[in-house]
From TrEMBL:
Gene3D superfamilies (alphabetical): NAD(P)-binding Rossmann-like Domain
Keyword Disulfide bond: no
Organism: Actinoplanes regularis
The entry's keywords: Oxidoreductase
Family classification: Belongs to the short-chain dehydrogenases/reductases (SDR) family.
PANTHER family: DEHYDROGENASE/REDUCTASE (SDR FAMILY) MEMBER 4, DEHYDROGENASE_REDUCTASE 4
The keyword Cell inner membrane is annotated on this UniProt entry: no
GO molecular function: oxidoreductase activity
SUPFAM superfamilies recorded: NAD(P)-binding Rossmann-fold domains
Record-given protein name: NAD(P)-dependent dehydrogenase, short-chain alcohol dehydrogenase family
Pfam families according to UniProt: adh_short_C2
Length: 248
């Protein structure tokens, strides 16, 4: 990946940070985003410092922040070749019948519309000319019902369809794919397994929850020449749980 300039959103920790680590290890230059400037700077240092990584703090649904990131990347590393849309929020749990509609709007704005905004900015920042790839981080809750996080899953299902539409529109230069993880052991997903990890894990045929590195490896593959004939696809990374268990 020595010729790649990647943006990974929501990457100060968890899945996004693991993806950024994998990219840097394979020779890419990486820009990471997140809301916490201090956490981002610590992540940049851990990634290897300013020669290989750049951190820009802001909110993913803020158009000004997205433009700032693209401009900073172009100035420091050159045209964008790779975009990983990892940012996502789930501020509400419970049944749809009682869902706060303002929370639903915020999820749609960040998880879906924000993702499209990142793609549009990346195209402005060089992706349209250089070609390359986009990977959207969806969820198994976007491929089958997930009680308790149903609207989050709805936004992730829409993200899968957006992936397919973009794959058609941006071909042949740009490939667009998605990954759909089940529960990965991160702070973001803690409410889905903390205090009952053994019970949750028992529903997985592979008998463990995911690790951020599991997702990072698949994303790196999708951005590599080995995946040069793959576009518009969603790879489920779930330890087999969608075959036998209840998605949460």
């Amino acid at each position: 990946m020595a010729d790649q300039v990647a943006i990974v959103t929501g990457a100060s920790r968890g899945i996004g940070f693991a993806i950024a680590q994998r990219f840097v290890a394979q020779g890419a230059k990486v820009a990471i985003t997140g809301r916490d400037a201090d956490a981002l700077q610590a992540a940049v240092k851990e990634l290897g410092g300013p020669d290989v990584a750049l951190g820009v703090a802001g909110k993913g649904d803020d158009a000004g922040h997205r433009a700032e990131v693209i401009d900073a990347v172009n100035t420091k590393f050159g045209p964008v070749t790779t975009l990983i849309n990892n940012i996502g929020i789930n501020p509400a749990y419970g049944p749809l019948a009682k869902l706060d509609l303002n929370a639903a709007r915020k999820m749609a704005e960040v998880n879906l519309i924000g993702t499209l905004g990142w793609v549009q900015e990346a195209l402005r920042g060089g992706l349209a000319e250089a070609g390359g790839s986009v990977v959207n981080i969806s969820s198994v809750s976007g491929v089958r019902p997930a009680p308790g996080i149903a609207f989050y899953g709805t936004t992730k299902a829409a993200l899968i369809h957006l992936t397919e539409e973009l794959a058609v529109e941006l071909a042949p230069k740009i490939r667009v794919n998605a990954v759909a993880p089940a529960v990965v052991k991160t702070r973001f997903a803690a409410a889905l397994f903390e205090g009952r990890e053994e019970q949750v894990t028992a529903t997985y045929p592979l008998k463990r929850l995911g690790a951020p590195e599991d997702v990072a490896g698949t994303v790196a593959f999708l951005c590599s020449p080995d995946a040069s004939w793959i576009t518009g696809q969603t790879i489920v990374i779930d330890g087999g749980v969608t075959l036998t268990g209840v998605v949460e």
